[in-house]
Amino acid sequence: MTGARPTGRDVARAAGVSQATVSLVFSDSEVTRARVSAPTRERVRAVAQELGYQPQAAGRQLRLGRTGLVHLAVPNILGPFFARVLDGAQGAATGLGVAVVVSSGWDGPTLARAHGDGRFDGLLLCSPDDSQLGGLPDSVPVVFLDAEPPTAPAPLRRTLELDVAGGMAAAVEHLRGLGHVRLGHLRSTDSAHTFRSRQAGFERAARGLEVRETGVSINGGLAAARTAGRELLDRPDRPSAVVCDDDVVAAGLYHAAAELGLRIPDDLSVVGIDNILAAALLAPGLTTVDLPGERLGGAGMELLAALIAGEAPAGPDEPLATTLVVRGSTRSVTRSAGTL
């Protein structure tokens, strides 16, 4: 093979496996033999030989003096979506032979201090707000998850986005297709790129519709969402459908609707974003945009390992697709709803 030196990601793509599997195969440990079948190990090694791959995986780098710890920083460890991200990151980390340490709600200076003394090999920073983006040492490998792409490239900085704007557009178009022309939006007031993207996606998709918006703090949980939901619904021109900036907010709206004697979906259609486990447990089940948190965490961990090993391919990385999951909380507009 000519040109750039082949990487573990090249081997993974050609062999049809994950980069974590490639790292496991070349670690040649008991964990490898327990988790990767013999045919898969043989296929990966054959592909590596064909490509001329020389393993320089994160595990080898760690044995040369690194700590073997990576840091996953999330805004709120109680947020169900971040549990999905951690699950994906932890699964990939196990295959790579590293351990994940999780923190919640750390500001920029705290992150900078934690990464200034070499205790971590790298950082996964998920859904950061604006206060967290400055002060990190340039020498620390960082993968930003569900975050704004950098304006200028940096050797040890990468970003993995979710197509949240596209997901929001799918939610609005679903409601438009059901005949809803008066939409509500329970909009996050939190400072983070992911919510700015949701807002931009909503505004583009809702052009030509009547829109009623109420702000809500995501970190306020169910109580704040219920209060905002009542404010939005307890008005003479209430919407026939509401899009919520996450599923916990949607759950709060369910409570507000019940307190006002409104039935979902007969009187009110509701769409959320995240597709947390509780979305299917609500009655009726919540129509929501699935954000692939496990894929985000796993892909982010593999990319961070490649940064640590000096094997990361040139960017940019494509946003991860989102999918609308339709359940029982939405229905077509009927005159019996009394809102049009």
Layout of secondary structure:
Elements lengths: L7 H8 L3 H9 L2 H6 L2 H14 L6 H6 L5 E6 L5 H17 L2 E6 L3 H7 L7 E5 L15 E4 L11 E4 L3 H14 L4 E7 L4 H13 L4 E7 L4 H13 L7 E4 L2 H13 L9 E6 L12 E4 L2 H17 L13 E3 L15
Parallel strand pairs: 1-2, 1-3, 3-4, 4-5, 6-7, 6-8, 8-9, 9-10
Antiparallel strand pairs: 10-11
InterPro entries: HTH_LacI, LacI/GalR-like_sensor, Lambda_DNA-bd_dom_sf, Peripla_BP_I
Keywords: DNA-binding, Transcription, Transcription regulation
GO molecular function: DNA binding
Detailed description of the structure:
With 340 residues, this protein is an alpha/beta fold. It folds into 3 domains: 8-51, no CATH class; 64-161 and 293-309, Rossmann fold (3-Layer(aba) Sandwich); 164-290 and 325-337, Rossmann fold (3-Layer(aba) Sandwich). The protein has 12 helices and 11 strands. The strands form 2 sheets. A 6-stranded mixed β-sheet has the order 7-6-8-9-10-11, with helices on both faces. Strands 2-1-3-4-5 form a 5-stranded parallel β-sheet, covered by helices on one side. Helix 1 crosses helix 4 (38-51), helix 8 (164-177) packs parallel to helix 9 and helix 10 (221-233) crosses helix 11. It is elongated. The protein starts with 7 loop residues before the first helix and ends in a 15-residue tail after the last strand. Residues 57-65 and 335-340 have low confidence and may be disordered. Residues 6-64 form the HTH lacI-type domain. InterPro entries: HTH_LacI, LacI/GalR-like_sensor, Lambda_DNA-bd_dom_sf, Peripla_BP_I. Keywords: DNA-binding, Transcription, Transcription regulation.
